[in-house]
Specification:
single chain, alpha+beta, Ribosomal Protein S5, domain 2, six-stranded mixed sheet, four-stranded antiparallel sheet, 11 helices, globular, binds alpha-D-galactopyranose
Length: about 375
């Protein structure tokens, strides 16, 4: 989406000019799934698709929310605080405004137009993208001195407290602090990061949207969060730990009897092995060992399918296809799961044929084609 298109749409909606334009990307996670809320290491990066906002101030102390992609709109008068109005999309930016007000900042009325080229509800973090986008534009336009890291943390509070999803920090952090051609190695315990060059030689990252709607994703997500809390409490009766990712796989094996529910035990096995895989993936990437990295991606998928049980027929079909392709070195579901997207590392020259055959393979088994997206690794939130 160009600034010119956005400016034109803003004019149509508000009958005046927009003064400022912002962009925030979506993200994919290379490896480290469902462990951010267990204090683990994750390796996400920002992509080139994302969400956009055009803004101008108004004089009538009102927050006006419009979107190119959704028909729902709202004019909300400035108040001391807000609560969620319902499932409408503008609750994400409203929640962010609420956080700024709660922190004691005085805000001016704004006319806002949002747009996005990120497919919504597909695990590419459209919600984190709009949260961080709103946080950043508020800070920039009101001269509030707040770091991108703090905007990510504030946006996570919106997701947890205002929206009601017990998610971790990964998505907000990745879309705020992503860097071109770099993976973020994010420690979700200390909430600190380092950048790692994403050098995969002749292989390129391909995103495959299963186009399966993520039914019950939120309640299942919160259920997994609860299972991890249960496991932590039971392990803490003997182990001195503050989160599950402190437990190494060997140590877990010696203490797994502490977890009474066999399902919860399997969930924990995913968490401790996935965290271990992130360290291994890091070493593989540093050594330029793409075959090893690919093997770890497949192992991560198997663990999410069998132990954490957040995959599904659609994502499994994509990964099963990938495993049969010589030109694909590794693949896995990415994000929360229950539908959404998978990623694959595929030889660049083979991508057109890989995609053509994948579409046919998936369509024949699932009944509709997936969407194949070749994305660059992009920058985090910015002014346009
Ligand atoms: C969602 C959440 C993240 C993370 C992933 C799974 O994207 O928002 O915090 O837990 O799922 O890794």
């Amino acid at each position: 989406m160009t600034k010119e298109v956005l400016a034109g749409k803003f004019r149509e909606h508000y009958n005046k000019e927009a003064d400022h334009f912002f962009f925030c990307p979506g993200r994919v996670n290379l490896i480290g799934e469902h462990i951010d809320y267990n204090g683990g290491m994750v390796m996400p990066f920002a992509i080139s698709l994302g969400s956009y906002a055009a803004v101008s101030f108004n004089e009538d102390k009102t927050f006006r929310f419009r979107s190119i992609d959704f028909t729902e709109k709202a004019d909300i008068p400035l108040a001391a605080s807000y609560t969620k109005t319902g499932p409408e999309w503008y609750n994400y930016p409203l929640g962010v405004i609420h956080e700024f007000l709660k922190a004691g900042h005085s805000l001016k009325g704004m006319d806002l137009l949002f747009a996005g080229d990120l497919p919504v509800g597909t695990g590419l973090s459209s919600s984190a993208s709009i949260e961080v986008l709103t946080g950043y534009l508020i800070a920039m336009l009101h001269n509030i001195d707040i770091s991108k890291r703090s905007i990510a943390l504030l946006s996570k509070r919106v997701e947890n407290e205002f929206i009601g999803l017990s998610s971790g920090i990964m998505d907000q952090y990745a879309v705020a602090l992503g860097k071109k051609n770099q993976a973020l190695l994010l420690d979700c315990d200390t909430v600190t990061h380092e950048y790692m060059p994403f050098e995969t030689g002749e292989y390129k990252l391909v995103i495959i949207n299963s186009r399966k709607q993520r039914q019950l994703a939120e309640s299942k997500y919160n259920e997994r969060f609860g299972e991890c809390r249960e496991a932590l409490a039971q392990l803490q009766t003997t182990l001195s730990i503050t989160h599950l990712c402190e437990v190494k796989p060997e140590v877990f094996k010696q203490h797994e009897h502490l977890i009474t529910d066999p399902v919860v035990r399997r969930r924990t096995w995913h968490v401790v092995t996935e965290n271990d895989r992130v360290y291994q993936a890091c070493a593989a990437l540093k050594a330029g060992d793409i075959d090893r990295l690919g093997t770890l991606l497949y192992a991560s998928h198997d663990s999410l399918r069998d132990d954490y049980q957040v995959s599904g027929k659609e994502l499994d079909t994509i990964v099963e296809y990938c495993r049969r392709q010589e030109d694909c070195v590794g693949a896995r579901m990415t994000g929360a799961g229950f539908g959404g997207c998978a990623i694959a590392l595929v030889k660049e020259r083979a991508i057109p044929e890989f995609s053509r055959q994948l579409i046919a393979y998936y369509d024949a088994r699932i009944g509709y084609p997936p969407e194949v997206i070749v994305s660059e690794i992009g920058e985090g939130v910015k002014q346009m």
